[in-house]
Write a structure and sequence with these properties.
Elements (H helix, E strand, L loop, with lengths): L2 E2 L3 H20 L5 E7 L3 H17 L2 E7 L5 H13 L5 E4 L6 H10 L11 H9 L8 H12 L8 E5 L6 H10 L3 E5 L6 H7 L2 E4 L17 E4 L3 E2 L5 E2 L4 H4 L5 E2 L7 H18 L2
Parallel strand pairs: 1-11, 2-3, 2-4, 5-6, 5-7, 7-8, 8-11
Antiparallel strand pairs: 9-10
Helix pairs in contact: 1-10, 2-10, 3-4, 6-7, 6-10
The structure holds nicotinamide-adenine-dinucleotide.
Length: 282
């Protein structure tokens, strides 16, 4: 039986620390504030937004919602980003992606100040992930994987890690962050010749492919730690991870569930990044 690495205790521990830091900022006359910029009404965006607002309220981060219609012109989006950049009372901005128009998304990410980019979408933030220097923040989900490992006392140093997925939102940044923490990282993707063998060789598997049940019994072995980042909605409307939990859990040493695993840590990381941005503004 594997240890189940639940996200809630990680988020609770983070929140305790964040409550103290938010109070210190308020004592210094700063109300840490997040702007949430959402285009359209995608149900998963709205669900995440509600969870983020709840987490922020709990720790003392104020939230301003900026909502634009699905059909909004690029100028309206860029104007909203510019106003967020120029507002000294806003410390961080969460821009929901993907946007309906990919070119508008690229333009919005290019315009957003890296100092306020609390979810790692700007080139400045990604450069900071790669160099360890400069303004910006890693994407919250990538950081959530690291927070989870730290909370459960799992050091990536010297370990072999297989990251499945190479998106800029999760796969690539989490691979770079784990490498910075002295892991030996193999990046797997849709063209990887033998995914199962690459995963079995690893001590830690990070599954972030967005393919329900991709990581099955053939990909796991005893002693592994498995982080399942995937959130896939089935035709019946239930959530499934990228890992076949029923096949992996009896074999591996530790595993995150879906839901209630990595995803439960992400909003706490978002609030943490807003507080860091506010602290840096002091
Ligand atoms: P994406 O579609 O942008 O990228 C998926 C990556 O997986 C690609 O690099 C692709 O090469 C790789 N891939 C696809 N099929 C593969 C296969 N058969 N074998 C190996 N690699 C394969 O997705 P994303 O935005 O990176 O999201 C990945 C998953 O994480 C999704 O399920 C998403 O819903 C979830 N997600 C979770 C959170 C969270 O808070 N837990 C946050 C964001 C995204």
């Amino acid at each position: 039986m594997a240890e189940i690495l639940k996200g809630a205790p990680v988020a609770a521990a983070l929140s305790e620390e964040l409550i103290r830091r938010a109070a210190a900022l308020r004592g210094a006359g700063i109300l840490p504030t997040l702007a949430i910029l959402r285009v359209g009404e995608r149900p998963d965006d709205v669900a995440y937004e509600n969870a983020a607002v709840k987490r922020c309220e709990k720790v003392g981060v104020s939230v301003r919602r900026v909502l634009l219609p699905h059909s909004c012109a690029r100028e309206a989006l860029l104007d909203a980003v510019a106003r967020i950049n120029d507002d000294p009372a806003i410390h961080g901005c969460l821009l929901f992606r993907p946007l309906p128009d990919r070119e508008s998304e690229a333009a919005a990410c290019a315009l957003l100040s890296p100092e306020k980019d609390v979810d790692g979408c700007t080139a400045g933030s990604l450069a900071a992930v790669f160099t360890g220097k400069g303004p910006g923040f890693p994407p919250c989900t990538a950081q959530a994987c690291l927070e989870l490992l730290d909370y459960y006392g799992i050091s990536p140093a010297g370990k072999r890690v297989a990251v499945v997925g190479r998106s800029l939102v999760i796969g690539r940044p989490v691979a770079m962050m784990l490498q910075s923490r002295d892991a030996t990282v193999t990046m797997c993707h849709s063209k990887t010749a033998d995914l199962a063998a690459a995963c079995r060789e690893a001590d830690i598997v990070v599954a972030a492919a967005g393919q329900a049940g991709l990581i099955d019994a053939s990909c796991v072995r005893a002693g592994q730690v498995v982080l399942d980042v995937g959130i896939n909605v089935t035709a019946e409307g239930t959530l499934r991870g990228d890992v076949r939990f029923d096949e992996a859990e009896p074999v591996v040493k530790a595993i995150t569930p879906v839901p209630a695993g990595v995803g439960a840590v992400t909003t706490a990381v978002l609030a943490k990044h807003v507080l860091q941005a506010a602290e840096r503004s002091l």
